[in-house]
Write a sequence for this structure.
């Protein structure tokens, strides 16, 4: 059986595919650029007033004279009329400077009398209050590099330079196959021996955080034939997530079904709790995760392992990893990594009560998964631990 | 003119509305529960085996005898056959214990010979490897409290106890009205005096982080009449965001248009840079933000102010606030708060270059907004500052 770091390394080594495509800019927030974006235009596209005020030629103003206001230019319009020496033009924020003008005085810094303005601005210098053409971006110069994470500000920036689509790393197609004869849907009354199916809910909810809607969610009949059919049907997806049936019980069909579907096993079983029966395999480019059926184990394995494969597609981490002190002491077996439901309190990682893997109520309260490392047995308050914010 | 804290307080004071409604559980991830959820059933709904193994009655086993295996029960099925003294039944993880059995021995801890098992498990005690009925949740007992933030684990937990819908705080309806005669869409060629419209892109992108799709996005003609029409049309929304036209220039129609639409001004102008002309008003329950037209100012005001109103609806913060040391020194004017485009590097907040409010390229690189407080003029490396992670 392998340890968690080897398992993670093996997943990463087998992530050999990314998908790159154009997206309309408006849909591209939170994606990562697959290639650099070059500015299609100079921005500002013209010398632009940064203020409401008056535009004039600084050098041709004799500093003692009043300036005759000869016209007006609003944002969105333009003026062809040349501004002559000792003339000015009324101008508004965002408007282009008319020919001849190179400086804007703010409206708060003048007095006006019979169409003549007197400037009272000791700080004023040539070029004041003017945003020069191309001073934000220059045409054909890189605006954003490849691998840039598109925040709302990035989207705004690109919209402002006239970019309307971007090449980004695409989300993978993900299929979910839930197995387990004991599972029923919440709209059924619970019968003898049955429990409510919850893994598809957990996986759909966590995928939503990556803005991924699974291409398929199905419940396979709990026998080998139906499991094989379900797997074969989903092999066009980039990632197939199965839950349940990966232990070695007499009714655990998943691993044998995967073998019969020619999925190559990369690992099966990891020295960890929960999630020991975790399976990872591959067929062509399709990555296959066999997650344990236990809801807490399935979700923990998603956070710790499936997220690695998804991150490789979308080129970003969605869950933050940190190393912080432990808030309470804990004793565990050596030789196996424990993933504990935890909560960050005052900068420390608190191990919550009710860690039994079937108890989802403590997981529901958790805001992090605390990793208690394999080799260590006794954990003291204050010991540094790795956590994954969820 | 008011300061930023007074502005924030005035927004909060005027947030007097929340919307509560039922959502199907599968769509409820990242929402906050508006009321506690009570478990409809005991879970596990029966005494359940936690292992693949053999179920028997611990007290009726004489500890020396082998146990006769009389049958089998898989997960998803059940057995009515009573397990008699010195008998056992083959059982699988998740299956209900048959009548008479109270303990499960793991399959790894027995040897089997001609239908009789010999138990070799020194740790075994009465009730071992059994999840008792109701040991996770008890019927009609609170499963999750009101105001609980629904993580994927919470969704999984609720699905597992048979909850299929939840009452949550709903997203507000938000309308966006963009003003500015100089604005054109990216599918047009840029003409004299025109610039590409980007505020609607920024606002839609940032709202997407709250999973909010605006109910309406429109560009109003830049005159008072059309601005009034646009505002009146959107007054059924919970929040109306306008961009542009909130300064006091001759072509700034928005504040007068809002007045003519009977929107009550709560404040106009804040001692801050960027975003000085920020307007906030209210009509009936509709909150109205007049954001500056400058893209960096508009987005900064969204992060700092509009987010307060949205958070009050959805009962959670989406942007993390932190207080960390400044990475570089800075000198600013006293008497005004500066919001700087920043980046967290090695736990310190770095003020990025190119802070001019029209330069969106530095905002595109930023991962935080650094608040440089109003009264202070000189900021040294290491000074603690408030940041908002974006």
């Amino acid at each position: 059986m392998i340890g968690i770091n080897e398992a993670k390394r093996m997943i990463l080594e087998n992530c050999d595919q990314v998908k790159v495509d154009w997206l309309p800019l408006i849909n591209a927030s939170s994606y990562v650029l697959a290639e650099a974006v070059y500015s299609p235009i100079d921005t500002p596209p013209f010398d632009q007033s940064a203020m409401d005020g008056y535009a004039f030629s600084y050098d041709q103003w004799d500093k003692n004279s009043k300036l005759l206001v000869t016209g007006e230019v609003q944002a969105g319009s333009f003026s062809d009329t040349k501004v002559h020496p000792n003339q000015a033009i009324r101008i508004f924020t965002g408007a282009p400077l008319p020919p001849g003008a190179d400086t804007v005085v703010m409206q708060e810094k003048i007095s006006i009398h019979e169409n003549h303005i007197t400037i009272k601005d000791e700080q004023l210098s040539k070029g004041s209050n003017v945003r020069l053409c191309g001073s934000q971006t220059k045409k054909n110069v890189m605006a954003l590099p490849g691998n840039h994470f598109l925040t709302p500000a990035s989207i705004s920036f690109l919209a402002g330079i006239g970019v309307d689509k971007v090449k980004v790393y695409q989300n993978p197609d993900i299929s979910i196959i839930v197995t387990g004869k004991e599972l029923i849907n919440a709209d059924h009354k619970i019968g003898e021996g049955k429990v409510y199916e919850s893994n598809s809910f957990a996986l759909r909810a966590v995928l939503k955080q990556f803005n991924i809607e699974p291409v398929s969610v199905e419940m396979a009949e709990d026998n080998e034939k139906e499991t094989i059919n379900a797997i074969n049907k989903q092999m066009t997806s980039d990632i197939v997530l199965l839950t349940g049936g990966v232990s070695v019980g007499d009714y655990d069909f998943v691993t044998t079904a995967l073998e019969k579907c020619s999925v190559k096993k990369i690992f099966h079983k990891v020295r960890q709790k929960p999630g020991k029966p975790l399976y990872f395999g591959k067929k062509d480019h399709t990555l296959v995760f066999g997650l344990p059926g236990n809801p807490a184990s399935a979700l923990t394995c998603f956070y710790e392992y499936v997220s690695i494969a998804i991150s490789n597609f979308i080129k970003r981490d969605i869950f933050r990893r940190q190393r912080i002190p432990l808030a309470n002491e804990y004793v565990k077996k050596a030789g196996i990594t424990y993933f504990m439901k935890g909560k960050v309190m005052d900068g420390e990682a608190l191990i919550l009560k009710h860690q039994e893997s079937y108890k989802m109520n403590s997981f529901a309260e958790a805001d992090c998964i605390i990793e208690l490392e394999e080799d260590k047995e006794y954990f003291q308050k204050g010991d540094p631990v790795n956590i994954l914010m969820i």
User: Anything to note?
Assistant: Chain A touches chain B through 88 residues (CB under 8 Å). Chain A has four domains: 4-18+171-314, 20-43+136-169, 48-131, 321-389. The mean pLDDT of chain A is 95. The helical segments of chain A are 4-14, 152-160, 199-208, 224-233, 254-260, 295-314, 360-365.
